[in-house]
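hey so i finally got around to running the thing on that chain from the lab meeting. sorry it took forever, my laptop kept dying and i had to restart like 3 times. anyway pasting the input first so we r on the same page abt which one it is
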Amino acid sequence: MSAPPHPVPRQPVGAPVDDRPAAPPGPVTLTGRYGCVEKLTPAHAASLWEAVEGQDAIWTYMSHGPFSTAADFFAWVDERAKFADPYAYAILDPAGRCLGTASLLNIRPAMRTIEVGQIVYSPALQRTPLATEAQYL
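ok and heres what got predicted. didnt touch it at all, straight out
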């Protein structure tokens, strides 16, 4: 006598999955112990430029940057802030300075999937509790 096929057809394999499309990301502010994450806007450009100016190495794996002028950088932030996918967030320290960005991308509400990427951490953010917390938030 042979064993039944595995898995058994129509056998439940875990909790039921919500098959409704997920809500897309939105302009929330998530506050932690070391700073906050909020929707990237053009208002973040000045402090973010201060944090990344001249830091060419942080752009190595990005499809954009490094930027040679503040005007080019500000235009890039303005463009990023308008996108729905990727949806960019600013990472701010307790003083309200933008030290980096992270995006949600390849957003597929029907499949309930999303990726985290396009991460730009200034040297002031790298290897800090806020850097870790930002990913958690």
